[in-house]
Amino acid sequence: MNTRIQVEHTITEEVYGCDLVKEQIRIAAGEPLSEHIAHATPRLHAIECRINAEDPAKDFQPTAWANRFLLCARRSWRSNRFACLHRLHTVPPYYDSLIAKIITVARPGSMPLSGCGAHSTNITSTGIKTTVPFHAAIMRNGEFRAGNYDTGFIERVMSSGKLDLTSRPIRLHD
Fold it and tell me: How far apart are alpha carbons 154 and 55 in whole angstroms?
């Protein structure tokens, strides 16, 4: 049994409508699981894109030595207004290169891919290579969208040369 919270816990929380950290604290305090956790059922579908300071074109080599970078996202993929997620931030090379997460949810019967793909294609960064183009390319991939993937999917797609990791240029302001 792994007793620590997993990095993917936010997906479980979205799908089941729960707070896993709160439940861990309750259990540590000797309290029972909350009733809604003990009988939880999935209510949504969710997907998470972890935006890392890595270069997908170079076998996901970390790019964590950047002194400064700027990561911005459109507030809506239909507008040209941007919100900066990190400003003049240094990514330390000592641990996980995570700089942002995109979590998209959808009702059962539909998949949250279009939302995650739209968010991925509307994020831009300067001063550092990130996994944003990789996530956008995966969300566009027909096999992935059709649910035809397994644990070897990423390696197969990356080695096939069919994954377009180029990002279209985005103007950060008018």
Answer: 15
